[in-house]
Inverse folding.
């Protein structure tokens, strides 16, 4: 039943018919804290298990519909003695009902060679090469896959890893802190939130002297020598420049008397809580929007997914759902303020709809969304694209037909296809639009059901495009069908 369309969206098929990323970007949070460099005690509420704190949540979950399968990963960077650990402790305290694990970049120091050990006072412990970057990335990756990891235990007296390791369980939130976590590209790429603790150099030096003398048996002259020789140059070269990668910069000098970073920590933890409630893919892709579900929507999905549903019912409920997707998408268009006078003679300050829109349906199933779009946007222009899909889905799809408004480059474009499978057809259609000069940020891709594979394809390749869908299904099977899916949407919608 699927084959002929899956191989070619044959010419002549008729049819009847995503800071958010900005939200935290470069957010400079005025915060306050008078902190000691060793931060809060780690004896916080909940069970402290070395690098992990599980005071809530469940460390072991099954994957599947409605279950999160990836943790939210936060990187906290900043110079030596900047207050990173304190920030982490405060986040952990606020997330007392979640399962949180904390890793320190210091656990991943490389073993010193015999040669280096002989001259240990001249070893640069602040340089990126001092750390086993690959081991950090592997550890994060395993936690991302909700696997148990064995974290090295570094012995600062022997400058080698101890034979034992620390077992860390999968968690809802993973925090990794260290001077270079935002500098290292591989690590940075795995972070869902990047925090930089910005503390004045003199404050940090004072804290470092205090800490190393009091806790590490060092003398002041030695600490200052190491600071001047290694710590400061590495800070200037690697740590300070990594500030630009941060989503949130916490200026530590803005302290209040209680010494808490209340505003910053509240914002961070609120954001994490919001993200934890979202589907994994929404956490990864700020350009993915899933319309909020309710029992009406679930009920309509239940009907269209039922193989026993008749064509008229399928069309009726699919149309209702498609209309919701179209309405939700229109909500992402820009607007201008507009004031009108009501029949009572009072002013109403409202907004004006975005002008210069058009729809583009991917033939054939996308045509099922045209009515919904026309019903919402009077007289909207609608173009069409027909994609020939290669059997293996790896090759770039061929465009068989296209008819688009001549001035499409000046418009916002709503691309319509109810099913986003591998994302091959959608990505090819989007490429056509980009080639025509449409700005990627002005393209919205509308679907009823999206498979994770298609979301990855579109959201990763076109990060400024917005993908709007009503449900995310589980996966694509070996025949490229969305599971559980609706079967062949076009057949069920257009054929009696
Ligand atoms: O994301 P992809 O893997 O490219 O698959 C998604 C495509 O598959 C379905 O179309 P189908 O091939 O059934 O053709 P039709 O629209 O003509 O029914 C659907 O309507 C999308 O166009």
């Amino acid at each position: 039943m699927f084959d002929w369309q899956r191989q070619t969206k044959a010419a002549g098929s008729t049819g009847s018919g995503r800071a958010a990323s900005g939200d935290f970007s470069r957010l400079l949070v005025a915060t306050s804290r008078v902190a000691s460099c060793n931060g809060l005690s780690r004896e916080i509420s909940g069970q402290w298990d070395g690098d992990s704190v599980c005071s809530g949540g469940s460390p072991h979950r099954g994957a599947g519909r409605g279950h999160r399968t990836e943790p939210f990963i936060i990187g906290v960077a900043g110079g030596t003695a900047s207050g990173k650990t304190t920030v982490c402790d405060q986040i952990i305290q606020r997330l007392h009902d979640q399962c949180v694990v904390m890793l320190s970049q210091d656990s991943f120091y490389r073993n010193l060679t015999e040669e280096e050990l002989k001259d240990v006072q001249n070893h640069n412990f602040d340089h990126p090469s001092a750390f086993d970057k690959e081991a950090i990335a592997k550890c994060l990756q395993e936690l991302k896959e909700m696997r148990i990891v064995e974290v090295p235990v570094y012995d600062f007296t022997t400058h080698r890893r101890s034979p034992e390791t620390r077992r860390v369980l999968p968690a809802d939130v993973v925090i990794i802190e260290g001077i270079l976590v935002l500098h290292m590209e591989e690590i940075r790429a795995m972070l869902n939130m990047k925090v930089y603790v910005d503390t004045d150099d003199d404050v940090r030096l004072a804290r470092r002297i205090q800490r190393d003398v009091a806790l590490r048996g060092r003398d002041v002259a030695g600490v200052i020598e190491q600071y001047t020789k290694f710590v400061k140059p590495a800070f200037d070269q690697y740590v300070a420049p990594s500030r630009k990668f941060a989503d949130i910069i916490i200026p530590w000098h803005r302290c209040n008397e209680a010494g808490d970073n209340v505003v910053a920590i509240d914002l961070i933890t609120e954001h994490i809580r919001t993200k934890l409630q979202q589907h994994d893919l929404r956490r990864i892709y700020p350009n993915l929007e899933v319309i909020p579900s309710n029992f009406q929507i679930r009920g309509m999905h239940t009907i269209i997914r039922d193989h026993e549903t008749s064509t008229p019912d399928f069309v009726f409920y699919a149309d209702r759902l498609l209309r919701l997707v179209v309405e939700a998408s229109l909500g992402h268009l820009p607007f201008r303020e507009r004031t009108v006078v009501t029949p009572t003679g009072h002013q109403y300050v409202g907004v004006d709809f975005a002008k210069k829109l058009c729809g583009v349906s991917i033939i054939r199933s996308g045509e099922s969304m045209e009515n919904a779009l026309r019903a919402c946007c009077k007289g909207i222009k609608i173009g069409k694209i027909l994609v020939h899909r290669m059997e293996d889905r790896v090759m770039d799809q061929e465009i068989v037909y296209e008819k688009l408004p001549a001035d499409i480059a000046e418009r916002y474009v709503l691309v319509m296809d109810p099913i986003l499978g591998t994302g091959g057809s959608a990505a090819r259609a989007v490429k056509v639009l980009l080639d025509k000069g449409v700005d990627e940020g002005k393209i919205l891709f509308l679907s009823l059901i999206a498979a994770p594979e298609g979301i990855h394809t579109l959201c990763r390749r076109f990060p400024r495009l917005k993908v709007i869908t009503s449900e995310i299904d589980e996966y694509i099977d070996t025949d490229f069908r969305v599971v559980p899916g609706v079967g062949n949407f076009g057949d069920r919608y257009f054929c009696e």
